[in-house]
Design goal:
By secondary structure, the chain is α+β, with helices and mostly antiparallel strands. The protein is built from one helix and eight strands; from the N terminus they run αββββββββ. About 10% of the residues have low confidence. Keywords: Signal.
Amino acid sequence: MKTIRLTWATLLLSAVSALSSLLMAQEAKDIIGIWMPSEGTSYIRIFKEKGKEKYHGKIVWLKEPNDESGNPKTDPDGKPILNMINLKNFVFEDKEWVDGTIYDPKSGNTYYCTIEMADGNKLEVRGSLDPFGLVGRTDTWVRMKTK
């Protein structure tokens, strides 16, 4: 009788483990959506480029879209921040999006970037000075619910 219970427990544990692996499996398209960086001052819409396996991000909302003069906020080069593409050329490889860049409209600098999905509703976005990600910082972005 103990052998039967042990066998059932082993089978149940194996089934739960297999199911959780399937649920946690990521696909390239999982990144598509609207995300809010930790500062909470903008939303980024991540999308797939038509006909290619590349992903990009566009700033679609700013908490304060205008400067003190009432004009649209711009980057150091004078380009409007709202609707700016600030994530470029990401490809999905080994459960993360790699080989992309992130543009910081405050400083005007572009950084190497990788993105990992922490869970279905959080991204770990790492911008770095070097292509290996050694010198940089990671920010957690949260998926925004859409209607």
